[in-house]
Amino acid sequence: LFPSFSGARPMSYAQMPNDLEAFWMPFTANRQFKAAPRLLVSAKDMHYVAADGHKVMDGAAGLWCVNAGHGRQKIVEAVQKQVAELDFAPTFQMGHPKAFEAASRVAALLPGDLDRIFFANSGSEAVDTALKIALAYHRARGEGSRTRLIGRERGYHGVGFGGISVGGIVNNRKFFGGLLTGVDHLPHTHNLEKNAYTKGEPEWGAHLADDLERIVALHDASTIAAVIVEPVAGSTGVLVPPKGYLKRLREICDKYGILLIFDEVITGFGRLGSAFASEHFGVLPDMVTMAKGLTNGVIPMAAVGVREPVFQAFMQGPENAMELFHGYTYSGHPIASAAAIATLDLYREEGLFERAASLAPYFEEAAHALKGLPHVIDIRNIGLVAGIELESRPGKVGARAYESLVKCFEQGLLIRTTGDIIALSPPLIIEKNQIDELFGILSKVLRDID
Ligand code: PLP
After folding, report:
1. Which atom belonging to ligand 1 lies closest to the Cα atom of 289?
2. CA-CA distance, 443 to 431, in Å (whole number)?
3. What band does 253 get if pLDDT is binned at 50, 70 and 90?
4. Is the CB of 69 under 6 A from ligand 1?
5. Closest C-alpha to 150, from 182, 128, 119
6. Hey, what domains does the chain have and what are their CATH numbers?
7. 291 ligand 1 Cβ < 6 A
8. Across-strand partners of 417?
9. pTM, entire model
10. Residue 197's CB: how many other CB atoms inside 10 A?
11. Ligand 1 neighbour 65 (Cβ under 6 A)
């Protein structure tokens, strides 16, 4: 029997999959993985248990989503209760109380007048939703010529056609045809020469936001609908915005009537020590996309928070006319809504965002103590997230980080890698001694890899 945290249903070898072929795994080298699979069979608080029984500390909050830690009883019970009470109800021309309650709770958490909430099921859908709202908003105001969307190099906004179009990761784009037309990209803010080993926000680079002026000069503001950025780019290696950069973007967007969208799928729900990064940086966007930590990763759910004036632009026509031709079968799903409410309760009751803020300096020191280890060429961090950049092996980008991932897993630590960057984003319940353990395992592995 495999050990199981629940105690109730330990997994036996007979229950393990004996055929790994059918599942076409996402963002995975399928053949490599299936030759030596890593299977997780249960989880509680800071740890997974792998199929061979060894404990694995979660240094990545699953995929940046399990902010309150695993197996939280309050969420388990909320989900169990909801599935027994009301398993599904449509939210097209119909409603159920939990979706409204969840929306109010999210609106209350968002800064400023980001008071209207559109639900989706994944970060990718939230991004598509926000981009569509931006386009429809300008049209509703009689500015239908504003159709250009502006993303950023090294931006990750999920894998929908909207998200990969405004996103700036070549491999996520180049296999998939023409993508959306009328898209431009701001330069990314990653610069090892100027900013290596910066703690928190780098001093250098705010001027990179001025590139938006160049794009406006090239196309005219009357053609531009929205700019979308991650306040901290996560998936491309924890790129913390230079001091003043986001404020500058906000100013230029205001000057030209361009909507500013913050993709907070990773930064939302406490990662930086505040509910949202917009609050942390003191910059109010027109829309915020979120997912992951919204339900602690338990059930898929995502949302777009929309500022009041944007919402009101849609509310001008006849009252019996649908205002936005958009929605998903599972928008505001009852079980996801119940999970979200319970999750937000947990964050508040346990003060997890404040906890992240108070642990951040300790986490920062522990991360930067890796400086000087073999292959390490940069360390950057903010809140409870850090990126450790390794020098790539010639001609083998990503190989070194992948070897680290495999060895960390063997030694009891789950990390996330992107190219040759290791990203660490543990659940916000982590203890100081677990931070020590996490970086202890990583530093051992970094001394050990080729
Ligand atoms: N946007 C950002 C900033 C993300 O980090 C992610 C996922 O990591 C997404 C969007 C896509 O979310 P999903 O995988 O739920 O579609």
Report:
1. 1
2. 18
3. very high
4. no
5. 182
6. 13-68+352-448 (3.90.1150.10), 76-349 (3.40.640.10)
7. yes
8. 422
9. 0.96
10. 15
11. no
